[in-house]
Design a protein that fits this description.
The complex is a heterodimer. Chain A is mostly beta strands. Helices cover 2% and strands 52% of the residues of chain A. Chain A contains 1 helix and 16 strands. Chain A has one helix at 97-100, and strands spanning 3-4, 14-17, 20-30, 38-45, 51-57, 62-64, 67-77, 82-86, 92-95, 112-118, 121-126, 130-137, 151-156, 161-165, 173-177, 182-187. In chain A, the strands form 3 sheets. In chain A, strands 1-6-2-3-4-5 form a 6-stranded antiparallel β-sheet, with no helix packed on it. A 5-stranded antiparallel β-sheet of chain A has the order 9-8-7-10-11. A 5-stranded antiparallel β-sheet of chain A has the order 14-13-12-15-16, with no helix packed on it. In chain A, strand 8 (82-86) and strand 9 (92-95) form a beta hairpin. In chain B, 32% of the residues lie in helices and 21% in strands. In chain B, strands 1-5-6-15-14-13-10-9 form an 8-stranded mixed β-sheet, sandwiched between helices. Chain B has a 3-stranded antiparallel β-sheet with strand order 2-4-3, with no helix packed on it. The mean pLDDT of chain B is 93. Chain B has 9 helices and 15 strands. In chain B, a hairpin with a 2-residue loop joins strand 3 and strand 4. The chains are: A mainly beta, B alpha+beta.
């Protein structure tokens, strides 16, 4: 396993601590004049998304986490696992609900997702910044209510609920920003 | 980004830097100090347990990039140079951060027939002269510190006073439980296994120093003897043996490190050996002993005080910049330096 020295502990670097994979969100080098150096890191756990602080001594060796990112197509869920396929190698992978996390509400069959593998095993799934999904349920717009910016809730095929303008109807396809959960526009399908 | 070839410092910052550098040079020229230049490639980088030098190979022989020009400048002093100053690069392996770069610019000077107290007076006048290139104020993050010509004198406080004020315990005989609790309360997670010395260092760097020199630049004087560096030992304020060492802080940023210089070659060799022992205990290489430096001390170093000041940090404070690199043209890079990785958004959070 690759070992990192404390100068490698920079933003974005993936490390393994106490058997858990983390990514460094921020790091700050602290060194009193003529004294020992420390690197204060804010790190995010890939497994639960929690961010913690950890101070690392200059002579402490930290293992680099073997984390690989690739793009996979979402195939289907069998109720227990979510099945994905690597479009280049045609390898199929099953992810648990824990792996998928909050991204579950943006899952739509045949769409491509960014997935991470840790030591070659499925770790997590990230939605693209924008997805196009069908509205499966929403109330018709109320006649006469033409106020600017008025919205209503709509349920999407993936299960997510987003606020949409009144002119958007059940059966329409819309584009959503997955980072904010906001409606972007209506699209033709 | 690998494609980002532009300087880290803005044109405005680099212009300010040039003006500050001119001011520093003019200051010493007016005082009759001689500007010198010594090699950056050296046989021994300055033996210190916690300073690591990049090593280089020159024509098949081992050498180092200098962590400070101290040894060579003291050979000049012993040769009868009189007061001297040097503006040039200094190197530190393993130091990178908002306030650290592996290569930075150091102003190092020595005043013959001066003590640490007089050297602090010089430093104060110098910092005021440099601050006048801007509006006389030093800024970092939310802190502003007045160093204009008519501002009150810089504060001078002993190390023990500063440390005990901030932590409630003494650095010479620390209450580690208390230090651990203080760090936790300050939001610093100390590493799992820490010696008392490591806890003191972490508290100094993460809790004590960031609070120094917040309204008025502050000299920390009279250091514990185990943090003497190359300063001579003499009785401190309370009569206890203390190192004639000082550091200046402004807006929580350490700007310089000065000494009433140790001149005794026997004591000097003992300190070099002790630092090398600490290096070995920490699993680091011992550095070669610079015998020419020791021979110069044996031939007689004039009574003098010296100071080393980080020029990039001073420019950063005068310009109100966010990082040391914003006061420099470029970051140091190696052949292995890759494009910074992006931040992933792991599952389970959104």
């Amino acid at each position: 396993m690759a070992v990192l020295s404390h100068t490698d502990l920079r933003k974005g670097v993936k490390i393994e601590l106490d058997g858990q994979p983390y990514q460094i969100i921020d790091s700050d080098f602290v060194k009193p004049g003529k004294g020992q150096a420390f690197t204060r890191c804010r790190i995010r756990n890939y497994l639960n998304g929690n961010t913690i602080e950890r101070t690392i001594k200059s002579n402490e060796k930290v293992a680099k986490a073997d984390i690989e990112a690739t793009t996979c197509q979402y195939l289907y869920s069998d109720g227990e696992f979510f099945h994905f396929m690597d479009g280049t190698t045609y390898d199929q992978w099953q992810f648990t609900a824990k792996n998928v996390g909050d991204t579950v509400k943006w899952l739509s069959e045949n769409l491509e997702y960014n997935v991470l593998f840790w030591n070659g095993k499925p770790l997590s799934v990230e939605a693209p910044n924008h997805v196009e999904l069908e509205i499966t349920q929403c109330d018709p717009g109320v006649a006469g209510n033409t106020a600017q910016g008025a919205t209503k809730p709509a349920t999407l095929s993936s299960g997510a609920v987003v606020n949409v303008p009144l002119f958007v109807n059940e059966g329409d396809w819309i584009r959503v920003d997955t980072r904010t959960g906001d409606y972007t526009e209506r699209v033709k399908k | 980004m690998s494609g980002d070839w532009r300087p880290t410092g803005s044109r405005q910052a680099l212009r300010l830097r040039a003006q500050v550098v001119q001011t520093l040079r003019a200051f010493f020229e007016r005082r009759g100090s001689l500007e010198v230049e010594t090699p950056v490639i050296v046989p021994s980088p300055g033996v210190d347990a916690w300073l690591d030098a990049p090593s280089v190979t020159l024509d098949g022989h081992r050498a180092y990039l200098s962590t400070s020009p101290e040894y060579a400048m003291k050979r000049l002093l012993a040769s009868g140079s009189g007061s001297i100053h040097q503006l040039g690069p200094a190197f530190r392996a393993g130091e990178r951060g908002r306030l650290h770069e592996p290569q930075f610019t150091m102003l190092e000077w020595y005043e013959v027939d001066a003590t640490d107290v007089e050297c602090m007076d010089t430093t104060e006048a110098l910092v005021r002269a440099a601050a006048a290139v801007g509006d006389g104020r030093l800024r970092f993050e939310r802190e502003v510190c007045d160093a204009s010509a008519d501002a009150p004198p810089f504060r001078r406080v002993s190390f023990d006073e500063v440390f005990e004020d901030a932590t409630g315990t003494s650095a010479r005989d620390p209450d580690t439980t208390r230090l651990g609790r203080l760090l936790r309360v300050s939001g610093v997670r100390s590493p799992p296994e820490c010696t008392a010395e490591e806890l003191v260092d972490l508290a100094l760097g993460a809790v004590v120093q960031p609070e120094l020199g917040l309204d008025v630049p502050t000299f920390v004087t009279d250091w514990p003897t185990d943090r003497a560096g190359l300063a001579r030992i003499r009785p401190g304020k309370d009569g206890e043996p203390s190192a004639a060492r000082f550091e200046l802080y402004a807006c929580g940023v350490e700007l310089c490190n000065g000494y009433h210089e140790l001149a005794d070659p026997v004591e000097q060799r003992a300190r070099i050996d002790a630092e090398n022992d600490r290096r070995a205990a920490a699993g680091k290489d011992r550095y070669p002993v610079d015998e020419q430096f020791l021979a110069a001390l044996a031939s007689g170093l004039p009574d003098c005080a010296g100071n080393a000041l980080g020029v990039d940090r001073l420019v950063m404070l005068i310009g109100g910049l966010k990082t040391l690199l914003q006061a420099r043209s470029f970051a140091v890079r190696t052949a292995d330096d890759a494009v910074p990785a992006r931040i992933d958004n792991p599952g389970g959070s959104s």
